[in-house]
Structures are given as structure tokens and as C-alpha cells.
Write a structure and sequence with these properties.
Oligomer: single chain
Strand order of the largest sheet: 3-2-1-4
Helix content: 40-55%
Number of helices: 6
Shape: globular
Distance between the termini: 43 Å
Structural class: alpha+beta
Order of helices and strands: HHHHHEEEHE
Number of domains: 1
Strand content: 5-15%
Length: 158
């Protein structure tokens, strides 16, 4: 039988208890979007999926301020990681889609690195060249693909 870490669960419940009504609405929208993206990445062509995620169509009149953009990205990413356990690509596409619906242009980036001789990939979202759902420190491990040319960025491959 698996042991439940009561301290960890109490801490997570405390954090959830601090969510506003707006946070809950975003988390609910994130769950629906993450579920849709999770299915779509398996049966929709990658270029079409990318275009859908980035199609900027505002659902309200105002583009959210930077703090709200980061909060939406964080809530979507956490929901994907903790609640649904989906891949980084699914989370990145969902973050891009939720922000695009609010008039925020972003870019899903993909990078690669070597792990024990194997190629490993990771996806994240950037706005104006800054990561939204990942730390810059974590991303230093990855050589990002150049979005314009499809080339891999500079990294020493030993």
C-alpha cells in the first residue's frame, strides 16, 4: 500500500485554499483545454495544432497585464503537472491557447539535450523572448530550436 505524504497534501491544500474565484475559473478552463490538447496532439497534424494554439482571438476587450499573464501560465502549467500529469508539450500548447484567447501572443519553444547518451526534448512557452511556464535556469539545459529556421541553437554536444 502506498504511503500518503500528509504534509505535502496539507501544503497543497493550503495553496489551493488561497485561490481566488478567478483562479478557479482559469484552472477549470485549463483542465478542459489540457484535456482537448492531450487528445489533439495524438490525432491532429503538428502544424495545424501549433496554428490553433497560437490563433490570437480575444474573448474580452482587454489584454491582461503581465502579472495576470504569468498567473494564467502558472495555473495552467500546475494544473497540467499536478492534476492531469500531461506532457510538457501538452502544457505548453494549452498555455499558448489560453493566452491567445485573451489576446496575448506567445511562442511555444522546443529544445533538446542529451541525457545519458539519449536525446531528450522539452517544450515551454515564451512571451517577448521570456519563458512563462518554466525557469530560465532549467531551460539552460536545453538547446532550443530556432523557430524561424528550424535549426538547433548553440550547445556543446559531448
Amino acid at each position: 500500500m502506498a504511503r500518503i505524504d500528509a504534509h505535502r497534501w496539507r501544503e497543497q491544500l493550503r495553496r489551493v485554499g488561497g485561490f481566488s474565484v478567478g483562479d478557479w475559473l482559469i484552472a477549470t478552463e485549463a483542465i478542459a483545454t489540457l484535456a482537448a490538447v492531450s487528445v489533439a496532439v495524438r490525432c491532429v497534424a503538428p502544424l495545424r495544432m501549433h496554428a490553433w494554439a497560437h490563433e490570437v482571438r480575444q474573448i474580452s476587450g482587454n489584454v491582461p497585464p503581465p502579472d495576470a499573464v504569468r498567473r494564467i501560465a502558472w495555473l495552467t502549467d500546475v494544473t497540467g503537472r499536478r492534476v492531469l500529469g500531461v506532457t510538457c508539450l501538452t502544457r505548453a500548447l494549452a498555455v499558448a491557447r489560453l493566452l491567445a484567447r485573451r489576446g496575448v501572443a506567445t511562442e511555444v519553444r522546443i529544445g533538446v539535450r542529451k541525457v545519458e547518451g539519449q536525446l531528450a526534448a522539452h517544450a515551454w512557452v515564451e512571451r517577448e523572448g521570456r519563458p512563462l511556464n518554466e525557469t530560465a535556469r532549467h531551460l539552460r539545459q536545453f538547446a532550443p530550436f530556432d523557430t524561424a529556421s528550424g535549426r538547433i541553437g548553440e550547445m556543446h554536444w559531448s
